[in-house]
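pasting for ref
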Amino acid sequence: MRRLGFCIALTLAATAVACGGGDGGGNDDAPSRVFVSMGTAPPGGTFFVFGSALAEVMNEFGAGFGWNTTAEATSGSQENIRRLVSGELDFALSNAAITYFAVRGTEGWDQAYPMRTVMTLAPNVALWITPTDSGVETMADLRGERVGVGVAGAGFEYFIRPLLGAHGITYDDFDPVNATQSGAVDLLADGSAAAVFVGGAIPNPAITQASASQDIHFIPFDETAKQGLIDEYLFFRPATIPADTYRGQNEAFEGLDVGSMHLITSSNADEELVYNVTKTLYENAASVVERHGAGRAIVAANVVRDSGTEFHPGSIRFYQEIGIWP
């Protein structure tokens, strides 16, 4: 009888724990766990580090929603867009230029991908740099040279091709070389390339590294070509690299934002989820900045900026509530 009573008591206790009752540590009022995936890019780049910062802030300040957000390393914007459509990702970082063409199904995309913007983030200030003794002074001088054009398959061509085209140049006019940003610095250091295309948030680690070891020349954009790009594409806009940002840079460089980083999701993403994510990140922008300086772009004037991809209704609702939706 004692053995039977013990078994019954043990069964009841186990049932209570399994149901979240008694002293088993359960809480009937706790939100159910919501697993949220955040697509970024390969480790070592801004997207991966910044995406991890966003995920950490969502987990820290989204406890009331039960979020368990994971920043996933991916190959970058193109993979992120395809995986958002397939449902493998909930949110992702992308370059606005790449998303611009994806939602329209042009420039090599096999269909129109139904992406929506959650918030516009830090500018991608990019340009070609070259050693001062390379003989390359202008965009026209790229002809016939070995030129670094970014990682193969990362989508750089979506903003490089228009940039080149505005200056009357195509990929056929030079020998394109694929490399990461850190790899691009090595190409310049050992003379394997006459110029390389690098960019991102200011200051850019690759440019800092390149200018630390040799004198670097920023290849200027033709003003007429630059204005034509700004007029034609929503994702291009003026961007200035302040003087003394890099060693030997004594004057401000008037360049281009070639497609800002932005947080995106699919058009059919749950409106309430997108609203809560937008609210959490916007209201806790200071905590994002503590983790990565690119969080400074989470301000009223920037997050609602149109870069050519429609905003999600959940984000629009939040921006309307706080009075910043244009």
